[in-house]
Design a protein that fits this description.
The chain is mainly α. Helices cover 72% and strands 0% of the residues. The two termini are 30 Å apart.
């Protein structure tokens, strides 16, 4: 399919991927908030998703 496209807007695909990652991070954080676990564990889980998303942004040279 990609080979048959006359033009491929990689920036648009990259932007959509990053927006999707941001959406899933938000959903993940809301699920973590509802878990019956220690608050320090929740903070570590949120920190991991923040670090992952920041690495994606750094690789893509993207600023939300």
């Amino acid at each position: 399919m990609l080979y048959s496209m006359k033009t491929l807007n990689l920036k648009k695909i990259q932007h959509e991927f990053l927006m999707l990652a941001m959406f899933h991070q938000k959903e993940f954080k809301s699920k973590v908030d509802s878990l019956p676990i220690d608050e320090s564990m929740k903070e570590r889980m949120r920190g991991q998703t923040d670090a992952f998303l920041q690495k994606l942004f750094d690789i893509a040279n993207f600023t939300p």
